[in-house]
Amino acid sequence: MSNYSISIRPYGVHTVLVEWPNKVEEAILDDILLFMRHLRTNCLDESLWEMIPAYNSLTLLYRKDPIDFTTFSQTLQDWYSNKEEAVLPRKYLWKLPVCYDLDFGIDLMEVSGILDLSIEDIIALHTKSPYTVYGIGFLPGFMYLGGLPAELEVPRKAQPRPKVQKGAVGLAGKQTGIYPQISPGGWNIIGNCSVPMFDASKENPCFVNIGDKVQFYAIERAEYDLHKIEGEVGIYKLEKENWNA
């Protein structure tokens, strides 16, 4: 198994940050997930350690005592250099509905002008291919989705909104994502997803994992309203497929 050149640095007295090359690549993300699986299986007590993967890094937080960084960083480097062959965690492709109605896509017209694309072209490009979940954060359940077509790359808004609606689907730079709850935000909003991204009452509050895939498909307003009702009564069925089975 080939290894990357990694760096390890303290990130507080209880935390270390392991960084891979500063690139957005699935191969790097897969290596991070494999190393995390190796640590969980062979090296670290998961009840004492929190592990947070994202893009090109893995954050390790020890819940008990301050970390002896000098000793632990060398041990961590040895673990990485000698990590065993492992199988990636199962990945899923989640198919998520988005209503691109202008009542929801409040920045669609502006994005259309900036990119010199019709709204129909924006929707077609946005739903064309799966995205990779490179990180979950900012808000519980907020997915950072990479793989946005270059034609849809648009800067964040210069002035963030104080209130973005739950389910809002946005564009920012090379990424797209869904706001899991009402919050401030500076992404360009092009639609709304009718599926809740985060439910604190469930054993697994966020059904999507880092490394999974997400593909959007367009729905009309009537179908969006139906999905919302189905979600409220608990009968909405998520669409998913095995990605790496």
Automatic annotation (TrEMBL):
<dbReference type="InterPro" id="IPR010016">
    <property type="entry name" value="PxpB"/>
</dbReference>
<feature type="domain" description="Carboxyltransferase">
    <location>
        <begin position="6"/>
        <end position="208"/>
    </location>
</feature>
<protein>
    <submittedName>
        <fullName>Sensor histidine kinase inhibitor, KipI family</fullName>
    </submittedName>
</protein>
<dbReference type="Pfam" id="PF02682">
    <property type="entry name" value="CT_C_D"/>
</dbReference>
<keyword id="KW-0547">Nucleotide-binding</keyword>
<dbReference type="GO" id="GO:0005524">
    <property type="term" value="F:ATP binding"/>
</dbReference>
<keyword id="KW-0378">Hydrolase</keyword>
<dbReference type="InterPro" id="IPR003833">
    <property type="entry name" value="CT_C_D"/>
</dbReference>
<keyword id="KW-0067">ATP-binding</keyword>
<dbReference type="GO" id="GO:0016787">
    <property type="term" value="F:hydrolase activity"/>
</dbReference>
<dbReference type="InterPro" id="IPR029000">
    <property type="entry name" value="Cyclophilin-like_dom_sf"/>
</dbReference>
